[in-house]
Amino acid sequence: MLLAMSRQWWDTPRSLLPARTVLDVKQKMVAAVAAKAPAKIILTGEHFVVLGAPALAMAVDLYSTAYADRNESGKVEVEATVPLRLVGSGEGRIIKSGKLLGPLRAAAEVALTKVHGTKDGVYVQVDCNIPIGAGLGSSASTSVAIIAAVARSRGVELEKKEIFRLAYKPETLIHNKPSGVDQATTTYGGVIRYKSPGIVESVKVDREPSILVCDTGLHRSTGRLVGAVVKRSKSQEALYREHVSEVAGITLSATRALERGQDEDLGELMNRNQELLQEIGVSHPVLERLIRASLQSGALGAKLTGAGGGGCMIALYRGEESKRRIARRLRRVGGMVYSTHLARKGVELVRTSPRTEIPQRLL
Fold first, then answer.
1. Which domain holds residue 215?
2. Within a 10 A sphere around the Cβ of 201, how many other Cβ atoms?
3. Which pLDDT score is estimated for 15?
4. CA–CA distance, 231 with 184 (Å, rounded to integer)
5. Contact yes or no for 315/299 (Cβ under 8 A)
């Protein structure tokens, strides 16, 4: 039941949301502890990472911020706000806010259990500024931020490897069997190479990759898309073994290209990765239209990022003039372009005043 509810939260369509607010958020004055965690994009390896290939991922500076404080009632209470412009279209329906918050409550509970061995009372408010169901790791970012904030509200600053481990439970409620790449990227920040289960390698880059992120506005369930790919891989084992082997090579070569600043090589590898994603059926006509438009406008490489089926695509560019040209073209063909940069730090505590106001948010 909780799994179904969490899926609905991340996939609720724009047309069905209330005009003024997503959730019933109250105005409270709390002595809050805050933590924020970035979004992520995947440069190579999505879907195939679940099947054993490594993935190359990068944290970007869109954030979820979680505020946490003791709750004398002894209950775990979680509220959240999501700007309406960040919730795209898709299948879904409105359900009561208490049901929407199951995965977030689970994140708070695992943090409390870790630091106290019991589920004490805590009040959490989340401010999510990452597009939902768009392949940018909104659920992982939110879970990671909550875990860090709740633990710190009890006087414990968890190590990143522990935050990463604890985030598996809420991510499982949303994505069934997550690879771990989303919470690894949002926890550690920067650029990482990831291999399931839980092998994280930091990739040193001297120059930030020049990446545009563009949203189709079609948002979907990662869990359903990943599950479909896993099912097909079992019925076409030989083909998928070849794909996994090729993607492993793509990720290794892309890592080297990124470290050496070889943008043309990185772009070609991204393009080949996209061809494989199309072959396994996780692309979408709108994604492909945006990818074609970016390449025709001078992008060195372009592909979907995340689970596909809609969501976001990324384009590698060189120079500000190229960036502006590609962004204009993407907007003309219906995309929403986000201005993003590399987020090097990953999850971090945020300094707050002794009495932090958490206001009502009108969307």
1. 211-338
2. 14
3. 32
4. 25
5. yes
Residues in a beta bridge with 123 = 69, 77
Q: Are the beta carbons of 9 and 104 closer than 8 angstroms? A: no
**CATH code of the domain in which 72 resides:** 3.30.230.10
Average model confidence (pLDDT) across the chain: 83
144 and 28 share one domain? yes
In a domain, 158, yes or no: yes
**Helix segments in the chain, DSSP class H:** 2-11, 97-100, 102-116, 138-153, 160-166, 168-175, 181-188, 222-235, 237-260, 263-279, 285-296, 320-332
pLDDT grade for 89, boundaries at 50, 70 and 90: very low
Give yes or no: residues 135 and 225 share one domain.
no
First to last CA, the chain: 28
Structure tokens at 353: 């005043």
**Residues 151-190 pLDDT 10s:** 999 999 999 999 999 999 888 887 777 889 999 999 999 9
- Residue 304's nearest CA partner among 329, 332, 331, 275 is 275
9 phi and psi angles, rounded to 5 deg: -60, -50
pLDDT at 235 over 90: no
User: pLDDT value at position 294?
Assistant: 98
Q: What total number of domains does the chain contain?
A: 2
The question of whether 265 is a catalytic residue gets the answer no
Name the pTM for this structure.
0.84
Task: Find the range with the poorest average confidence among 19-33, 66-80, 299-313.
Answer: 19-33
- State the catalytic residue, choosing from 182, 206, 263, 265: 182
Q: Look up residue 66 and give its two tokens.
A: 């979680």
Residue 177: predicted pLDDT = 76
Long-range contacts (CB closer than 8 Å, 24 or more residues apart) made by 154-159: 154/112, 154/115, 154/116, 154/120, 155/115, 156/114, 156/115, 157/349, 158/111, 158/114, 158/115
